[in-house]
Amino acid sequence: MEKLKITGNGPLHGEIVISGAKNAALPILCASLLTKETLKLTNVPMLRDVATTQKLLQGMGARVMTDNVQEFELTCGSVNNLVAPYDLVKTMRASILVLGPTLAHFGEATVSLPGGCAIGSRPVDQHIKGLMAMGAEVTIDHGYVHAKAARLQGARIIMDMVTVTGTENLLMAATLAKGQTVLENAATEPEVTDLAHCLNAMGAKITGIGTPTLVIEGVDSLHSATHSIVPDRIEAGTFLCAAAATRGKIILRKAAPKTMDAVLDKLVEAGAIIEAGEDWISLDMPKRAHAVNIRTLPYPAFPTDMQAQFMMLNSIAEGTSTVTETIFENRFMHVPELNRMGAHIEAEGNTAIIHGVEKLSGTTVMATDLRASACLVMAGLVAQGETIIERIYHLDRGYEHIETKLGGVGAQIERVQ
């Protein structure tokens, strides 16, 4: 089992190139199921979840060509297996994203109910409700969702809650439905917007992109296209927090600062000096951070995927802060691990109170989910002594070459067996 060994080594200094966004790449890879022609993607992050999606699509009969350097060509004209099996879906909740496009293009789909990080329930009821509104026959049997429809019909769908994957699944399905589909209370995350732009490049007719109301005029077929994945705002935010925690000075290249307003505002509130251009962000943290209160909410508010990183920053900040998690009910599993390193965090329900301490101490900790892994890496960078992080396969699901990128800006970090 691989682990990360980190020794606190002072401020981070230098430049980091940001990868494509995992949460945009996964649905766009699945969008290849909507056409028999080839979808070419660039700036795809080489992550475990991307490899899992590739394996899933190949298991369905898709032809996937990749140079393993961020470029993919996907052709789904030869798809002959409309089942997404449990052994793949259990490792990645985003696998549910093959449901909508497979059903829309091939008339039926069978997808295992998903697994993934243990950060709380992410029910698929909104996906199913939407597909049924579009005329699909849907049953759940022995842990699998079975859906059939000769051709989906356009419908007005009001989602009971804001759901990113639910929006993406229904958006993809609606592109090939007959007539007009209106998605109300749709997610507005940049990754959803990126998917919509890719679908339009493939011949879809989507308007209202970036708003809570998406209008899709169904077309008979989609065609080939080339699309570049949007930069990963969560990876960028993680590295900015790491630099702030170490009181460093870094520049991020190939970033998308316009998608990161809530995170950048909180870093400024914490005392960081931030400048940004079209595709770059610089951060300078000349002194100890000030504690900042965080409340997670759907985009464009503060993202749940940055909650753990800011909790770690708050743990060594000056003052007391609160972090309130409103998206997932089980996303404080990093709290005991941070406390083992000397943090002073009290968590009850969906709120944590963080009393900033002057220093953390290195020890052995266990990653429990993807973003918790990142916050433990940050903690290791500022802790005195050596920190060992176990179960880093979580980290590899969402961060591309994290030890290489951090090592390039002065971190003492290595992957060990």
Summarize the structure in words.
Strand 12 (205-207) and strand 13 form a beta hairpin. Helix 6 packs parallel to helix 7. With 417 residues, this protein is of the alpha/beta class. Helices cover 30% and strands 25% of the residues. Mean pLDDT is 95; it is low at 116-121. It has 14 helices and 24 strands. The strands form 6 sheets. A 4-stranded mixed beta sheet has the order 22-23-1-24.
Task: Give the SSE layout.
Blueprint: E1 3-7, E2 13-17, H1 22-31, E3 38-42, H2 48-59, E4 63-66, E5 72-75, E6 83-84, H3 86-89, H4 99-106, E7 108-112, H5 125-133, E8 137-141, E9 144-148, E10 156-158, H6 164-174, E11 180-184, H7 190-201, E12 205-207, E13 213-217, E14 225-228, H8 233-245, E15 249-253, H9 261-269, E16 273-276, E17 280-284, E18 294-295, H10 307-315, E19 320-324, H11 335-340, E20 344-348, E21 351-355, E22 364-366, H12 370-382, E23 386-390, H13 393-396, H14 402-407, E24 412-416
Parallel strand pairs: 2-15, 3-14, 6-7, 10-11, 18-19, 22-23
Antiparallel strand pairs: 1-23, 1-24, 3-5, 4-5, 7-9, 8-9, 11-13, 12-13, 15-17, 16-17, 19-21, 20-21
